[in-house]
Structure formats: C-alpha cells, structure tokens
Design goal:
Layout (H helix, E strand, L loop, with lengths): L13 H8 L3 H12 L14 H12 L14 E5 L33 E5 L9 H7 L4 E6 L1 H15 L5 E5 L6 E5 L4 E7 L4 E4 L12 E8 L1 H4 L7 E4 L9 E5 L2 E6 L10 H18 L8 E5 L32 H23 L6 E4 L2 H5 L5 E3 L15 E5 L5 H13 L1
This protein binds 2-acetamido-2-deoxy-beta-D-glucopyranose (6 copies).
Length: 419
C-alpha cells in the first residue's frame, strides 16, 4: 500500500486543515478529544535565570564521574546562557525553509538564540563541520520521519554547509522527500517523508481535508524507507504527531479497530495501541540483522508542542521568550505517554541488539527534555502564509525556528557518532 495524496497534511499545514474541520462536527470532536485529554499546561511565569548554579550541584548529587565522557548522557542537562549565539544565521545558510525562517518572517526577539545545551556530566563540544565531514566520507545518511525531522535536517545542513555546501540530487514533487550530496566528501544525505513509518492510506486533498479516515496497516512498514534502509550507513528515525489523528487500524488487511470512529462499529484501540504496534514493527526491522551491512540507527524521541491558551485551531499561542526552568514543565500527558512508549520499545530493541553484540548500532537521541524546556523556540506566529480564513494568524507551536534550539539536537548527533 502506498500513501495517497500525501502532499498536504495536518502536520505541515495545521492551520489550513483546521478551517475545514471546523465545519465537520465529528472531526472537531476528534481534535478536541486529542488535545483536551490530559493537556494541562502549567502557566508559570518565572524566568530562567540561575542556570549557572543548576548543573554543578546536580552532578554531585548524582555522584557521577563528570570526567568520564563515555558515561555522559548527552540528552540529560540544562539550557545555559550562550552569548555567542547560533553557529549560522539566515544569511549564511540557504537551507532554511520559509516556514521556519523566523528572522525573515519578522520575529522581533533574539533571546531564544542565546542558549546552549549543557549536559550535566560533560560539555557538548562545539560542532566542527570539518571534522564531521572528514569522518563521513563516502557515507550515506537517511533521515526518516515526518515534518519535524524535515525541520531538523535544515539545521543539520546549515551546520555542515559552513564547511561545504551540499548540492541537491533529488526532490519529490512536494519537496517532502529530498536528497543532497556533499560532493567533496561524497557524503549523501536523504530525507524520507513517512509520517507513520508503517503503510498508510491517507485520503486528504491539497487543503488537508479528508473525506475518509486514514487507514494504517500496522503489520506493514512503509516501503519508501524500509525498502531502501540497508543502503544507509546512518539512519535518524522518528515517529510522532500523526498517530494522534483519527484513523482506522488494519492488520492482515482486516480492520482490527480504530482511534476515534464513533460512527463505525470498530473497537476503539487508541493511539497508544497503534504507536506501540508501529514501533514494535520498526524495531523488529532494525534488529533483524540480515546481511553484512548494518546501519547505525539513531532513534529520536517524541517532539512535544507548547500551545498555551488553546490549540492551533482555536487561538493557542507560544509567546514565551525564555526556556522553562528544570522540572517546571514536563509536557502534556499525551506527549509523556507517547514518549514512554518509545522508551519502552527502544529498551526492548536495545536488549535484542545487545544479545547479538551489536548494541553500538542502535542509539537513542532523546531530545524530549531539550525540547520540552524550550517553549520559546517555536515558530509561533512567524510562519509564512499562516492565516485562517478570516485572516487571523494561527500559531505553530510544534515546529522550531531555524536557527534555534533544534540545532542542539544535531550537535548531539554529531558528538554521538564521532565518539
Ligand atoms: C573518572 O573516570 C576516569 C576515567 O574512567 C577515571 O580514570 C577516574 O578515576 C574516575 N574518577 C572518579 C573520581 O571516579
Ligand atoms: C534574515 O534576517 C533578517 C533579520 O535578522 C531579515 O531582515 C532578513 O530579511 C533575513 N534574510 C533572509 C534571506 O532570510
Ligand atoms: C561514494 O560513496 C559510495 C558509497 O556511499 C561509493 O559506492 C562510491 O564508490 C563513492 N564514490 C567515490 C567517487 O568514491
Ligand atoms: C493473516 O492471514 C493469514 C492468511 O489468511 C493467516 O495465516 C495469518 O495467521 C494472519 N495473521 C494474523 C496476524 O492475523
Ligand atoms: C503572551 O501573550 C499573552 C496573551 O496575549 C500576554 O498576556 C503575555 O503578556 C504575552 N507574553 C509575552 C512574553 O509577550
Ligand atoms: C517534572 O518532572 C520532575 C521529575 O520527575 C518533577 O520533579 C517535577 O515536579 C515535574 N514538573 C511538573 C510541572 O510536573
């Protein structure tokens, strides 16, 4: 099964699909059920200010050996003031898409650009694109997932393009799947758009209006990535927000249930069910080590959103200008539940890899904590063409400004693979 009409989607055009869904009673209920269940944002207004004091004592409390780089969890840490700012700008990098080019789109505040990620037990070294490219000669990288991964790859290319500008080898007609090459280093980077990772029939038109629920084949991987997977040396993969949509679930081509289909007589299985099933299948594929060549797989965790005072379709905003303090906000219940499923399935897969002596080939890029503390890093209203029918700006509190906190995700990747 292939994805039909993938070109417009809730995740890439959230403000548009909402317009039409408002006219559809059932869909509105779905949306409301998705977002209202358990989403309780803490409206705390304190500002981040004592970063200096935060990491050193914690290291002591944890009793960890802070000089032991090998044991340092790069994803555990705090955001610290970083006066020097990002490694590139909207003027030095040409890989920033308009939707995420906050500076171009008029975002006035700059504070969000001046924070650096500080793991508790070590320092995250400044990213060196020359070192990275030299280490990645003749390699093939694959980024496999949804529009958040597309968001991340812009930053990845920007960080690298300081050393070498890649050329584009391919793009799909909707620009969601693409391929670039750093020709001096013969490094190829592919982006594969597959928001469910499993086969999905998506019945949405160009405006993101669906006339039938999505059909997810929970026993069949999307071949657009699974088929080409063995050619990669490194894979960054992640699932996400699309699982929250209403959908009918199939196994063996028979309907087994759904998430929110009140007009149908199917069992309500919920998005936890479909996400766990999907990850089981994905990790089975990854841990099924056939052939000589095995890619190093970096699994990236759930990307939390930061809507306050509503959701994307009813006036939700994300206008904070500084990070949360440690523990001040842990994400919505939905975000936490989905990440927990990821961690559980990852751990199972890791054990399987360990038992085959290949644990180095599966890595966790747990960006959840980095992301959840950065309500200030989202595109918000500074997204191009981002208005509802009445001309009212809708906020995007899911995707991230580039440059922005998403750069740290790539700093971590690069440190991870070079070690
Ligand atoms: C920290 O780790 C290093 C390298 O493993 C080791 O040589 C050193 O003794 C450790 N220090 C402490 C205080 O455990
Ligand atoms: C870059 O950002 C500046 C604001 O800092 C803006 O004036 C300019 O138009 C942007 N240029 C591009 C090409 O994005
Ligand atoms: C470039 O890398 C690929 C593997 O990714 C390899 O097959 C090919 O021979 C390399 N080309 C050159 C010119 O080294
Ligand atoms: C799928 O269908 C085949 C053939 O009808 C059957 O043998 C198999 O057990 C089914 N698998 C599941 C998971 O239902
Ligand atoms: C964010 O928006 C709310 C509601 O419009 C407003 O009360 C608040 O002052 C704004 N915060 C910032 C930092 O602009
Ligand atoms: C977030 O999680 C931490 C650690 O579990 C906890 O101490 C803190 O109270 C939580 N914060 C909120 C706002 O729930």
């Amino acid at each position: 099964m292939t994805n039909k009409k993938r070109d417009m989607s809730w995740i890439s055009q959230p403000w548009r699909s909402s317009l039409h869904r408002k006219t559809n009673h059932i869909l509105v209920k779905v949306i409301v059920s998705i977002f209202l269940i358990g989403i309780s944002y803490r409206l705390l207004f304190s500002r981040y200010g004592s970063g200096e004091k935060l990491f050193a004592p914690t290291t002591e409390i944890l009793g960890r050996n802070s000089t032991d780089e090998g044991k340092c969890n790069l994803c555990n840490g705090v955001w610290m003031p970083n006066p020097s700012g990002p490694a590139y700008t909207n003027l030095t990098c040409r890989f920033i898409e308009d939707h995420q080019n906050c500076l171009m789109n008029g975002r006035p505040d700059r504070g969000y650009l001046h924070w650096g990620w500080k793991p508790y037990q070590c320092d995250l070294p400044p990213f060196d694109p020359y070192l990275f490219l030299d280490a990645m000669k003749n390699k093939n990288w694959g980024f496999i997932g949804d529009s958040i991964l597309r968001n991340q790859i812009q930053s990845f290319l920007c960080l690298l393009s300081k050393a070498e500008e890649p050329v584009e080898l391919y793009h799909s007609s909707d620009f969601k799947s693409r391929q670039w090459q750093f020709q001096k280093h013969n490094l190829t980077v592919s982006l594969i758009w597959t928001p469910f990772l499993v086969s999905a029939d998506i019945f949405e038109d160009e405006n993101g209006v669906s006339d039938a629920p999505i059909q997810l084949h929970l026993d069949s991987l999307d071949q657009s990535w699974a088929g080409t997977y063995p050619k990669f040396d490194y894979v960054v993969i992640s699932g996400g927000q699309w699982f929250l949509k209403h959908a009918v679930y199939l196994e063996n081509n028979s309907i087994v249930g759904c998430h929110y289909c009140p007009d149908k007589n199917y069992a309500e299985l919920g998005y936890e069910f479909s996400y766990r099933k999907t990850l089981e299948l994905v990790f089975q594929h990854i841990t099924n080590l056939v052939g000589k060549h095995i890619p190093v797989v970096i699994f990236r965790t759930w990307a939390p959103s930061h809507f306050e005072n509503g959701q994307w379709f009813d006036g939700g905003i994300c206008n904070r200008t500084a990070p949360y303090k440690e523990g001040e906000f842990n994400g919505s219940n939905v975000d936490q539940v989905m990440r927990e499923i990821e961690l559980q399935e990852f751990e199972k897969a890791k054990k399987t890899m360990e038992s085959s002596g290949k644990s180095n080939y599966l890595k966790l890029l747990d960006t959840y904590q980095l992301a959840v503390m950065r309500p200030d890093g989202h595109v918000g209203p500074y997204r191009r063409f981002h208005k509802d029918k009445k001309g009212k700006v809708q906020n995007d509190c899911l995707h991230w400004c580039v440059p922005g906190p998403i750069d740290a995700w790539n700093d971590i990747i690069m440190d991870m693979v070079l070690k």
